[in-house]
């Protein structure tokens, strides 16, 4: 023992075994640590199982789990057996000990040191590679399920005449098996070579042969297996050419064979397959020949052939055959790509119509009445007015609206109208006092829908609410208003137990409630409580007295999160939107089936294609993609999430989609048939934005139908940047009820514009019929403008707005003080061969914390108007303002007296003018209190004038009634303009 004293004669300290008590303590701590780790793993598994069971999708959990477990054990065991067997065989084939060289003497030390542990070392190595391989294989559960349940597409690729299902479902699985085989072969070669070297079968510096006959035969067979797998890879590569991506004519992710692929790479792969088969047979022959001479020559020939045939020859073909006459050579393959891409993205039915872009009607006043029948122009921008909803309808600080509201359709008096809608969701940041009980027990839900007309605003520029207040009242009738599941609900709540929840507050104080739904997981079981305490890292769940009989824990509460969890094979649209359906608030979520294996169809990157100026400012609107790169997409599923119960329902929407049918075979009884969609729900379904954005991006190039135009690149378009902000991101598509030139009536549509590549003038206008349940649903129409004339695009229109001196001065006044001007959605409407642009302008400033509609910008046929209301702007554009009133009927000899003959009316109008001027001065000074008083005085004066004139008419003063009309001021206030 080391000397612990001060010298030779000092006392020695002997370190003995720990006492029994210490050993017992250490053993107990070790056991507790192991049990803690095991229970932590169990808690994650158990809480997942409980959640899936609570939403009635336990089959998704079990199918996914057993598939992963099966793949893990099967492929982990195969890899462990392959590597372990070859280590054992190499050890078994070791040569007998002979005269020891220096190399063998050095290795002998290692052999002796591991001799007592050989079995354990073998088990450890095989277990390690098995675990790694099994974990990797379990991640391929989607590939396995798609292969085993694959449904034919009924479409064949043009090159090999194989069903598309082979490329979408079979080829990915074959490639996984091939990759697994390569990994097993390489690991086996390495493990066997090291074992042979350790036991003398391979020698580096020892005299004599470098390898024993046994080692030569063993390694040759393994290398032969590797080369045979390479032959299989060459054969599969032939089919892989149909889904190979390349950069062609500045088109990223072009997919499919080109001339050089069909005439150089395809025969080269076949030749290399044959060479690899011969080379593999030569390696297998070493079992009898015991020499590597022929296999090495064959392997060298294969490598040389891969360079010359697989690399050099295609380059020569491309250089000397394709480039001199590229258009003629590539045209047949471009035609195949055009057809496949249009089918894969559902744009093959797109109708492209020539559109002049200029009106042919000389008398524009006749078009004024056509505007209302052509479009219901939405001046309430759902992406601007959320703060206005917040300020006017938040009611309590613990409620909040999403940053971007939604557009839906609701009927009033038998007529549908575009409606801006948002939910008053729970906002934990605004609760009076934060603590665990308040955060998770008392403040648990939002309350009520707030909706406003999309096509109008009140005199102050505020939304015209059709559903408002707390509890919400209005046009939507009676419905369950409590919102336990929403876009802003990202934490767990414990409800239904002894602790009462705050429902809402009114003049009589706080109202309380207790959750009556069956959503969530019951916490009455102590095992469940312990599991959630561990899973959520919150020990109070285990012992809190606020949890008792009936307590349930709600989590995974955002609509997209719930749909993604119950259908992990779907790609989720970025925008879930609420609707009142059959007396309940339902979140509607669009979901897509995708694949990356549609032959000849060009790929797109969902994350990039679906990005626009809204997603850049709001991460919640990003698409939840299972595959970021796809070349086939369908809106196959419409999902709903009940805002009160959290119930998730998946409805089959595309009944012909083979990808959805495949997943429905893998997860039976998870998707309900399309016929189960109720009429009330159908009225609120719409064409999804993300699919539309993917399609419009593809249509910038694939709107052409012939290869010559595609190759020339003369008709390439681009999606313009959003002109209403400086983000540099694409303009988002807009929902709008409108009528295209070939339609007889308005339909709810999703619209966008295109500009030429690198330029700002307009190339085309695109709209898709978004009204679900109609025969035209999903029909894409494109109005293509002539290339020999210039029609202003969105950026040019916005620039024109900003550059006109009169408009610029008005904007400057609106920005006076600390006010901010916000531009709303720039809407485009085709009208009589021309294009009508409408843009609402909002002002936020002074004492106001929210934007109000103050002006409307309109342009048509080169004319621009910047007025207080949409009607005034349209009247000015079309010359309809100041028109003479309709003449009296024949025989009517009476005429109304001029307004100035009535002193009461005259005095009221003078008072109105004074109030208007006072309002204007208050607006310039940003004195919003004075502005409000002026508005009140103005309304009173106008009402007095109207009442006085009406009284004069009843007194027999004339055969018609003349009353003052009001037009809002630049700030939104009415300006007195007596009728003549």
Describe this protein with a few key phrases.
alpha+beta; five-stranded antiparallel beta sheet; 19% strand; seven-stranded mixed beta sheet; globular
- Percent helix: 40-55%
Count of separate DSSP helical elements: 27
Instruction: Quote the average pLDDT.
Output: 85
Distance between the termini: 119 Å
- Major β-sheet annotation: 7 strands, mixed
Question: What is the fold's blueprint, element by element?
Answer:
Blueprint: H1 20-54, H2 58-92, H3 102-114, H4 118-138, H5 141-149, H6 164-198, H7 213-240, E1 245-248, E2 251-255, H8 259-289, H9 293-322, H10 326-344, E3 351-354, H11 368-374, E4 375-376, H12 386-393, E5 399-400, E6 406-412, E7 415-423, E8 425-426, H13 436-442, E9 446-447, E10 449-457, E11 463-468, E12 473-474, E13 482-483, E14 493-495, E15 501-506, E16 509-513, E17 521-522, H14 526-535, H15 540-543, E18 552-554, H16 559-566, E19 571-572, E20 577-581, E21 584-595, E22 604-605, H17 606-609, H18 613-617, E23 629-630, E24 632-642, E25 648-652, H19 658-666, H20 679-682, H21 689-702, H22 707-712, E26 717-718, E27 734-738, E28 747-756, E29 764-769, E30 780-784, H23 794-803, H24 805-814, E31 820-823, E32 827-831, E33 834-844, E34 852-860, E35 863-867, H25 870-877, H26 903-924, H27 928-954, E36 965-968, E37 974-977
Parallel strand pairs: 3-30
Antiparallel strand pairs: 1-2, 4-27, 5-8, 6-7, 7-10, 9-13, 10-11, 11-12, 14-18, 15-16, 17-18, 19-21, 20-21, 21-24, 22-23, 24-25, 26-28, 27-28, 28-29, 29-30, 31-33, 32-33, 33-34, 34-35, 36-37
Helix pairs in contact: 1-2, 1-14, 2-4, 2-6, 5-6, 5-19, 6-7, 7-8, 8-9, 26-27
